[in-house]
Amino acid sequence: MNQTFLRKIVLLTTVVTFTGVCGFAQSKAPGNWPMPTGCYARSYSADHLAKHPQQVVQKIMVKFGTWELSPVAGLQVIAANQGLARDNNQGGQYFAMGSECFVEPWPDGMGATLGWICLSATNSGGIYLNRFDDEMLVFRTKQFVLGESENPLGLLDLAEVPDQWVTYELRKVDDAQCVDWEG
Questions:
Q1: End-to-end Cα distance, the chain
Q2: pLDDT digits (tens, 9 = 90+) for 59-96
Q3: Which of 63, 81, 126, 130 is deepest in the core (most CB within 10 A)?
Q4: How crowded is residue 101: how many other Cβ atoms within 10 Å of its Cβ?
Q5: With contact defined as beta carbons under 8 Å apart, do 39 and 60 qualify?
Q6: Do residues 66 and 22 lie in contact, with contact meaning Cβ atoms separated by under 8 Å?
Q7: If DSSP states are collapsed to H, E and C, what string results for 4-62?
Q8: Residue 85 and residue 57: Cα distance in Å, rounded?
Q9: Residues 6+ apart with CB under 8 A from 22
C-alpha cells in the first residue's frame, strides 16, 4: 500500500461532511449500532507519559466518516519519545493509517460480545470501540500498526507491549481541529 493511498484515506476521513452521510454507516450496522461520527483527539501531558513509560503515543487523533459508503476511521499519531518508539528512534515522528469499521463479535474479556471494531487498512490489527459519545471515545487494542513498510521510520504499533491490551481515552473535538498533522 503506497503513501498516497494512505494519505487519501486519512484526508477523506478528515474532510467528510457528516450531514446525510452517517445514515449510510448507521444503516450498515445490524440492530441498533450507530457508528461514531466526528473527531476525537488527545495530547498526553509530560506527567502522564512519565507515569506510563511504555506508552508509544504522545498525540493521537481518530476521525470517523465514510468512504465508498463504508464506515471508516482515520488515525494519526505523533510518537512519544519513550517505550518501543524510543527504542526504534521514532519519537516525535508522524504515523497514519486508515481503517474500515464493522460491527462483529469481540474476543473474550472485552466486556461485551458484539460491538464496533475498526480494522487496519493493511490487516495489521484493529481497535475495539468500547465507548463513544458526544464527549469521549474509549478504545482498546492488542495490535494496530500505523505507517507502511517502505517508510524508513518503520511501523508503529499502538500496543505498548506486543499482544497485550492497551486502552486509549480521547475527547471529542470540533471537526475544524481535525487536520492532517503531516501537512
A1: 20
A2: 999 999 888 878 899 999 999 999 999 999 999 999 99
A3: 63
A4: 24
A5: no
A6: yes
A7: HHHHHHHHHHHHCCCCCCHHHHHHHCCCCCCCCCEEEEEECCHHHHHHCCCCCEEEEEE
A8: 8
A9: 34, 35, 37, 66
Identify whether the C-beta of residue 128 lies closer than 8 Å to the C-beta of residue 109: no
What's the pLDDT band for 32 if we cut at 50, 70, 90?
low
Question: Residue 149: which pLDDT band, with cuts at 50, 70 and 90?
Answer: low
User: Which residue has cell 483527539?
Assistant: 41
Query: Between vectors from CA 170 to CA 55 and to CA 135, what angle results, nearest 5°?
Result: 160
pTM score: 0.78
> Cα–Cα distance between 179 and 183 in angstroms, integer?
8
Contact 92, 58 (CB under 8 A): yes
- The C-alpha cell 490487516 sits at 123
Grid coordinates representing 68 are: 465508498
Whole-angstrom distance, CA of residue 63 vs CA of residue 39: 4
Kind plus residue range of the DSSP H or E element containing 170:
strand 166-173
Residue type, 174: D
Question: Binning pLDDT at 50, 70 and 90, where does residue 182 land?
Answer: low
